[in-house]
Automatic annotation (TrEMBL):
<dbReference type="GO" id="GO:0032259">
    <property type="term" value="P:methylation"/>
</dbReference>
<dbReference type="GO" id="GO:0008168">
    <property type="term" value="F:methyltransferase activity"/>
</dbReference>
<dbReference type="InterPro" id="IPR029063">
    <property type="entry name" value="SAM-dependent_MTases_sf"/>
</dbReference>
<keyword id="KW-0489">Methyltransferase</keyword>
<dbReference type="InterPro" id="IPR013217">
    <property type="entry name" value="Methyltransf_12"/>
</dbReference>
<feature type="domain" description="Methyltransferase type 12">
    <location>
        <begin position="58"/>
        <end position="154"/>
    </location>
</feature>
<keyword id="KW-0808">Transferase</keyword>
<protein>
    <submittedName>
        <fullName>Class I SAM-dependent methyltransferase</fullName>
    </submittedName>
</protein>
<dbReference type="Pfam" id="PF08242">
    <property type="entry name" value="Methyltransf_12"/>
</dbReference>
Amino acid sequence: MTDEHERMMRANQANWDARTPVHLVSRFYGLGEKLDPARWFAAFEWEDLGDLAGLDVLHLQCHLGTETIAFAERGARTVGLDISEASVAAAAGIAARAGADVTYVRANVYDAVEALDGRRFDVIYTGKGALCYLPDLDRWATVVAQLLRPGGRLYIAEFHPLLNALGPKPAEGEGTELLLRHDYLGGRDAVHRNATYTYTDGPAVEGATDSYEWMHGMDEVINALTTAGLGIRRLRESDELPWPRWPQMVRTPSGWWRLPEGEPRIPLLYGLLASR
């Protein structure tokens, strides 16, 4: 990773520290209501993950730990890791209030092996807006392989590159058609954002508003994993999201959201199971 990438990741760390108080009070996360970690998971994720009772599970880039708690509730010995000190502190408080036994560690994902003192895991979980904040997937995959026990599994539930390539809202004078506005494939420079508001509702972010994202195509993800020695066991593509990215999306029986009938069915989320 270059010095410039390290600078960008430090900016991201500061940005997530600044985002955290906004997210804690948002309706999006709903932390003032009854905690429901399972609502962030598609049914197929649990099918692919299987029984987690008694296993060591690591959630990389866990932010507020709203998903991390779900693993503890299923009987796993659970660790969450995130680059943001504010996020980790908030996640620990949320888990404590929920009575969930989760350990949280503050570290850059690239430093996870050292930060976790060489501990190994049966399952590593990551996704839903995580990989785009990593500039080097080859190095990330190597870290994942080092953290997994032999036979251990990685599960990625991540926004599909096609979703990231489609604009979230039409420009002035345009209709509601979904248009390609961003790269699907990686390989270009980071996308720099200077956003006062985050993807949630709530007040403006105070302080560090700069962030950097990197596009990663499906081939880049899969090739990074196989180069690091992991085998791909299953790949799913889903047309549903846990929240409505576009106003025309409709609620499904699962409680998630998809584009309405009559519009093309396109992948919005993917689930990838790999093993060491």
